[in-house]
Amino acid sequence: MSAKRSHKIGLTPGTLVHLGKQKKHKVDIELTRYGAEVYEVSQATNLSELVFNQSGGEVDWVHFNGIHDTLLIEQLGQKFGIHGLVLEDIVNASQRPKAEEYDDFFFIVLQMPTFDEAKSAIKYEQLSLVLKPPFVISLVEDPGDLFDSVRGHIKQNKGRIRKMGADYLTYALIDCVVDHHFIVLEKMSDRIEALEQDVIGNPKPIHLKSLYQIKRELLFLRKSLWGSREALGLLYRNENALISKEVRLFLRDVYDHLIYMMDTLETYRDIVSGILEIYLSSQSNRMNEIMKVLTIIATLFIPLTFVVGIYGMNFEHMPEISWRYGYVAVWGVMIAMTVLMLRYFRKKRWV
Known about the structure:
The protein is of the alpha+beta class.
């Protein structure tokens, strides 16, 4: 069951109503504090249980594994001074990817795609990011996310992440989401290639259903990539001091990846359209073959029906009726006509 937008009709802007699939799990909060020489991780179910960064020397990554607890989200807004309209967008799980600039923070929404092998379909989960140095706040819908690699780099002090600020962590999370788009595109490529071989080899009605399912998934993936591209464009072109010049270069690189994926996606859409045309053409050719066979059969029986019709007339005087070899002669004529027509059809390569 999902909460619908109609539930918000008549409510004032900024009223928090969770829109999305109903969740029952307890929302956990993970606080990761790190710096060049500092690494701490703590878990809680309430913001009051956590001690946040006061000096600003380290980065505090605050991660929520649920957005359905509107009271907790409201407390988050009060704690960090986040605008009510942003909180409203956070609890709405059907937001399109976007980036918004406020006085002292950036708000970013992305869709995290994963490929469900069991259902052979793409699943999406909303990611909300608030960049407010030295804090980065991330919120997802369900426990478990795509950021284990980022956590590993922080814990093991790999790369430059421990030496950089909150803006670099934001980039790392965005880059992780974009990388998973690559994985999903590879899965879609495998599906399209396999389906193309099946359609060319032996087209079946079930292939039509698969084609429309893939076209639909590519459409949703395109919407996700298009919105993400707009969001990244705003971030890397923005000269706000919250994002350093160095990090903007990394964001531009992610932006280029999105452009590449959109081009790849358009290629896949063209391929799927081509496969659909192949399927429809094969079905049309198959129908034409069936109609040709039926037409040939009907054509063979037309003269036979004519002959039988003549001798089926109830005239009293028909010379052939009393002829001793009349029956055999009629059969001979009909067989000869059939053979001659078949030879003619074969000469014309109709059979």
